[in-house]
Amino acid sequence: MHLSWDETLFKSREVFDEDYLPEEYLYRESQLLRLATNLKPAVRGARPINSLCLGPPGTGKTTAIKLIFKDITGFENVVPVYVNCQIVTSKQQVFMKIFKAVQGYEPPSYGVPFIKLYYGALKGVKDRVLVVALDDLNFLLSDDVANDILYSLLKAHEEVEGVKVGVVGIATDVKLSARFDERVASVFHPDEIYFPLYGFEEIRDILASRAKYGFYSGVLSNEALDRIAELCYEHNDLRFGIYLMKLAGLKAEEEASRKIEPRHVEAVYENSRKVFLRKSIQALDDRERALLRLAYSSDEMTTGELYRQFREISGVGYTKFYEILSKLENIRLIDTRFEQRGGRTRIIEKRYDPSLVLDALKGF
Length: 364
Ligand SMILES: Nc1ncnc2c1ncn2[C@@H]1O[C@H](COP(=O)(O)OP(=O)(O)OP(=O)(O)O)[C@@H](O)[C@H]1O
Ligand SMILES: [Mg+2]
What we know:
β7 (334-338) and β8 form a beta hairpin. This protein is globular. 51% of the residues lie in helices and 12% in strands. With 364 residues, it is α/β, with parallel strands linked by helices. The longest helix is centred in the C-terminal third of the chain and has 21 residues, at 262-282. The protein folds into 3 domains: 29-194, Rossmann fold; 198-281, Helicase, Ruva Protein, domain 3; 285-362, Orthogonal Bundle (Arc Repressor Mutant, subunit A), CATH 1.10.10.10. Bound molecules: adenosine-5'-triphosphate and magnesium ion.
């Protein structure tokens, strides 16, 4: 039995979109509960407990805050503001978003001194509670900017009498707190909530749940699901699994097959890997790409050697170098491991075939 030209395997394609909020959010009850508990005081008009959600990419941090925000939007005395620090990259821009959410209209987009924007936003809060989620904090170009933004939020109640603000920071760097400067550290003691990597069974169940909402029933064979879960587990990123599942579905459709089989998964695997890699590289800035290029351009190298070479071409200092290196490691473009002979020297390991990465870097 073949699929006819007007039939589809997809019950709903948006289930596989990047910004889709899952129907079932599995294995994160405790994290969700803690986040909700911390924010609950806001609903009663009190200052919430600040939180920090930490964990590797694709572990459900953004999903958690989006689900919580969906719940609290209904309360009139809470003003939730979601800020993606990959897009909103300065203190000015953060407060423009807050102003808009608080006042209900856009502030003038340029020429407004920060101080005016700041007081304009905070004074409008009145007896409500402002809850600001700063997602992807580690993407901010410098720690100074992150500290500055945090400080301006944490000190708001001293600037404007009676204003109540709660902050939820989200980042992949589990040691984020170590990067707070003294000013921030002395007033910011967030409840740290960890989002660990999913195990194989968890990945399989989450993907199965996606399939249930995205495909018609019985479309995804168990064998294909197992294979996708396996590859996703190897990549350690749920997003990759979701993407692979969608492409396998399209492939099966293209072959007019009524079922998605392992061969469809194999057929799209290589290409998915490439596209996925390209997407990660696209999200980097020039300096980060330069370091990635360097790391993939030579044979085994220690972090010290890489730093020397990188300093020569970019002039950056060690702290910044280390920050960029951690980021590349976080988003799984490279690994670092300690040298066999003990000591503190670390070796850079490539996670991809070098030609694949260097090819993908060519377009930039
Ligand atoms: N527990 C879960 N149940 C169902 N879907 C999940 C779960 N965790 C993550 N997902 C899905 O995996 C994808 C990645 O999740 P999310 O964007 O929340 O990760 P993240 O931790 O914010 O990653 P990053 O640090 O890269 O921003 C999304 O499509 C999300 O719907
Ligand atoms: Mg996220």
